[in-house]
Amino acid sequence: MAMWILGTLLEVVVLVGIYRTGVLRRYLFLSLYTLSSVAISIGRFRVLFHYGGVTSAEYRYFYFYSDALLTIALYFAVISLFFQVFEQMRVERYLRFAAVLLLAGTAWFSYAIVSQSSGRMLTHFAFELSQNLYFVGLALTYVLWGAIVKLRETRTQLIQIVLSLGIYFSAYAATYALANLAPGIYPYARFLLSAFGCLLPLSWAYAFWRVPVNARLVPARLLEVAQ
Prior knowledge:
By secondary structure, this protein is an all-alpha fold. The chain has one domain (2-226): Rhopdopsin 7-helix transmembrane proteins. The chain has helices at 2-21, 28-50, 57-85, 92-114, 121-150, 156-181, 186-209, 219-226. Helix 1 (2-21) packs antiparallel against helix 2 (28-50). The longest helix is centred in the middle third of the chain and has 30 residues, at 121-150.
């Protein structure tokens, strides 16, 4: 609960930092994801205390459905970072088409997995979609990092955001994989997921409060980070 509250407060700090530095338009989808996360956290607190805890059916339904929406929002935030990296190449239309196609393909794959379920298919679909999108987000982030290195992108703030996403998605994907392989560690996995939920906004808060908007990494330093 403490990490949940801390993560929500850090997200508010991120939003203030984005507004304060005047980069709201540049990081619009990232801002929308963070704002949605804050709003959903408040909604979860309300449902949690109104319906009697995490074991209530209302809280579980709200959690899984809202988690699916947040994962989709984070997916589009990652796609928006591709627009920044490739902005000089004029490929926005192709990126949008590819993003929608990939999301639709992931949704279809998730539905195909749960279509044989006997009950609560919608809840299972929301969980499966979130889990699959985390793995898609992990792959996209590594592709994005490869593009940053290849194109010699030097904007420090953007690099900080992409690196933090790579660590976040990697940690989540590993935790989900371990939980599936060994269901007995799920209580510990929940603790780890809560910790990761704090580290991502903490890294973003650092990027927007401590890294100047126009700061650049020299190419040699960027290659050191890549290695």
